[in-house]
Amino acid sequence: MTLDEALAKGLEGTPLTVDEAMALNDSVSTDALCDAADQVRQRWMGDVIDTCSIVNARSGRCSEDCKWCAQSRHHSTGIAEYEYIPREDLIEAVRMNDAVGVRRFSMVTSGRRVPKAQMKRFCDLYRDAAAESPIYLCASMGLLGREELQMLKDAGVRRYHCNLETASSYFPELCSTHTHEDKMATIRAAIEVGMEVCCGGIIGMGETMRQRLELACEAREAGAASIPVNILQPIPGTPLESTPLISEDDVIRTVALFRLIAPKVTLRFAGGRARLSQESMKRILRGGMNGALIGDMLTTVGNKIDEDYRMFDETGFKKS
């Protein structure tokens, strides 16, 4: 696989295999990879940046043992804990994001799943949000079944977020309380009820480059409309707190290869990018990325919205 062959496939909309992407990783410079990925991004996604924002709608006390996560009750991280976001806080967040032109907005809850008995309350909050603003509503509420997903869809939610987190070959190293297949079942159910799915993961958790590329391939094959790319921020109190940071060049190359593996899917800057230099973030935006989660993340501080918009403008993007 040469870079010219990979570019031709990308411009046709044909995804690279993991083996083909690995061959490029072993033989092609970072700038050459990014230039090819940028052409593919422009061909299929244009110059519009797809923006979204999230709010932590239920925090802490999660039963799952995911090694990266501050919200697990198995780890001691000192985060705030609460059962429901107050309605007034939700509406304020919706209004603020709508006012600055953010396209999508999601409530995210801690825990394996929102119990069916509590789903009505969250659905009522979504109906309130829909009445307040035309913003595109998304949800991230764990390993839901078809009935609960249908309730969310009926309440106005159009996209469901369920990260695979890492490749299926590496997932058992990071979590023992649920499986990759549990996640796939939720993704399939969301698609069955007519939702789009947002499905990506975290890089830098000790996985190999091949496993990162397997994640991109698995997310695309699962039907992802959007693949969020998070960069691990090791959080004190979690089992990954001492994990060495991957290099900025590794992040840049990963995103470019993701674009060639998923030429027609939105690739979304998500958590962890605040540690990158402006130069690296701009190289990524001109190297395959076309979406961004903006504002604060769940338990960590994100990038300032006005600074993000300035960066998007400087790299030739238009707001969605």
What does this structure look like?
The protein is α/β, with parallel strands linked by helices. It has a single domain (3-319), classed as Alpha-Beta Barrel (TIM Barrel), CATH 3.20.20. The protein contains eleven helices and ten strands. Strands 1, 2, 3, 4, 5, 6, 7, 8, 9 and 10 form a ten-stranded parallel sheet that branches. β4, α7 (180-192) and β5 (196-198) form a beta-alpha-beta unit. α3 crosses α9 (248-261), α4 (87-99) packs across α5 (116-132) and α9 packs parallel to α10.
Write the layout of secondary structure elements.
Elements: H1 3-12, H2 18-25, H3 30-45, E1 48-58, H4 87-99, E2 104-109, H5 116-132, E3 136-140, H6 146-154, E4 159-161, H7 180-192, E5 196-198, E6 201-203, H8 209-221, E7 226-231, H9 248-261, E8 266-269, H10 278-285, E9 291-293, H11 305-314, E10 318-319
Parallel strand pairs: 1-2, 1-9, 1-10, 2-3, 3-4, 4-5, 6-7, 7-8, 8-9
